[in-house]
Write a structure and sequence with these properties.
Helix content is 43%, strand content 25%. The protein has 342 residues and is an alpha+beta fold. The protein has 2 domains: 3-225, no CATH class; 232-335, Arc Repressor Mutant, subunit A.
C-alpha cells in the first residue's frame, strides 16, 4: 500500500530528520548530507556546491510506494538547467514514468522556465527499488557557451536557441547512459578527495559528463537524419536478426550474412537495427555478452578467464578492459561482489 503525503508533510519530515545536517568533508561546509526520513525508506541526498554547479547525489530505497501530492500554486519565475544521470530505480509523475524507465538506466537534459502558476501533480517512487542518481544543476547557462562554441551547428536547433538566449521554450531530451558515462559517475559517487582537491576533481567530472551528454546529442541529431521507414515485416526481420545474433554469439555471422539470413538488405538492417534497438548490430551483441559475463561473475562459480572464453574473448586482458569500460569495475571486483553501475 502506498504512502500518500502532501508536499508540506513530506518537507516537514525531511526537516525533522535533518535538524543537525552532516558534513562529510571537514574542509568543505558546502558539502552536506541529508538523511532520508526512516518512515519512508533509507538513504540520503548529498548536495555539493561547486563553481557554477550544484551537484546532488541521491541514494535511496523506499519501504513502500511513496506518493507526494504537489498542490496547485504559484512559483516565482525561475530558469533551471539540469543534467541528470539515473543509474538505477525509477519514479513517475501523474502515472507516467519519468527520466529512469522501470529497470532502465538513462540520462537527461532538462531546461525549464517555471511560470508563476502550476497545476496539482503527483510524484511516485516505487517500493524496494534502489534509486541512485547524480544530478548536475547549472547556476547559469553561461557554462555551456564554451562547449557550444565548438559544436554549435551539430546540436539540436531548439537547444542552440536556448543556449544563445533566443528562446524560453521548455526543453527535455533523454537517452540511455553510454558506457563512457559510467566511470565518471562512479568516480563522483566514490570521490576519494577532500577540500580544494575534491572541488576541482568533482567540477572536472561534472564537465566531463556535460561534454559526454552534448556529444550524445550531436550523435542523436546525426542519427536521426539517417532514418528509414520500417514496415511491420521489416521490424519482424530485424528482431529475427537479433535472435540469430544471440543464438550464434560465440561465432556471430557478418552483417552481410546476417542480412541474407533474414531476407533484408544490409543497409536497411544496419539503420533499422539502430532504430528498433537503439544501438548497432554488434553494439547490441557486445552489450549482451557483457551482461551474460556479469551474471556469470556474480554467480561466482567460474574463473574470470573461463567467463571471458564463454562470451567469446580469447584474450582475458581484452575482456577485462571491455568489462571495466562497460560496468566501471574489473571482472575480478565484480566476482568479489563489488557493485557494478550499468
Amino acid at each position: 500500500m502506498a504512502n500518500i503525503v502532501s508536499q508540506a508533510e513530506y518537507q516537514e519530515k525531511w526537516d525533522d530528520c535533518n535538524k543537525n545536517p552532516q558534513y562529510p568533508d571537514p574542509l568543505d561546509s558546502f558539502d552536506i548530507i541529508s538523511s532520508y526520513p526512516q518512515q519512508f525508506g533509507i538513504g540520503y541526498e548529498r548536495w555539493i556546491e561547486l563553481p557554477d554547479i550544484s551537484l546532488m547525489i541521491s541514494n535511496q530505497k523506499y519501504h513502500d510506494d511513496l506518493q507526494i501530492v504537489f498542490e496547485a500554486g504559484q512559483h516565482e519565475f525561475e530558469e533551471i538547467v539540469e543534467f541528470g544521470f539515473n543509474l538505477s530505480g525509477s519514479y513517475s509523475i501523474n502515472g507516467l514514468d519519468v527520466a529512469c524507465n522501470r529497470g532502465g538506466r538513462e540520462n537527461f537534459l532538462q531546461w525549464d522556465f517555471f511560470s508563476r502558476e502550476y497545476n496539482t501533480f503527483v510524484k511516485t517512487w516505487f517500493r524496494n527499488e534502489h534509486f541512485l542518481k547524480v544530478d548536475i544543476h547549472l547556476t547559469s547557462s553561461e557554462i555551456l557557451n564554451n562547449f557550444v562554441y565548438c559544436v554549435n551547428q551539430e546540436l539540436p536547433p531548439d537547444l542552440i536557441k536556448l543556449i544563445e538566449g533566443k528562446s524560453q521554450q521548455n526543453y527535455i531530451e533523454d537517452n540511455l547512459l553510454t558506457p563512457g558515462m559510467i566511470l565518471p559517475l562512479q568516480q563522483i559517487i566514490n570521490c576519494p578527495f577532500q577540500g580544494m582537491t575534491k572541488q576541482i576533481y568533482l567540477e572536472a567530472k561534472c564537465l566531463e559528463l556535460i561534454a559526454l551528454k552534448l556529444e550524445q546529442l550531436t550523435k542523436t541529431k546525426n542519427a536521426s537524419i539517417k532514418s528509414i521507414t520500417l514496415k511491420p515485416k521489416d521490424i519482424e526481420k530485424i528482431r529475427h536478426a537479433r535472435d540469430i545474433l544471440i543464438f550464434q554469439q560465440e561465432n556471430p555471422p557478418s552483417l552481410l550474412d546476417l542480412a541474407r539470413k533474414v531476407g533484408i538488405n544490409d543497409n536497411k538492417l544496419k539503420i533499422g537495427f539502430r532504430q528498433v534497438f537503439g544501438t548497432t548490430v554488434f553494439g547490441y551483441l557486445h552489450n549482451h555478452r557483457m551482461e551474460i559475463a556479469r551474471q556469470l561473475l556474480q554467480d561466482g562459480k567460474m574463473h574470470v578467464a573461463t567467463v571471458a572464453n564463454a562470451v567469446g574473448y580469447a584474450n582475458p586482458s581484452h575482456f577485462a578492459a571491455a568489462f571495466k569500460r562497460k560496468f566501471g569495475v574489473s571482472p575480478s571486483e565484480c566476482k568479489a561482489g563489488k557493485k557494478t553501475f550499468e
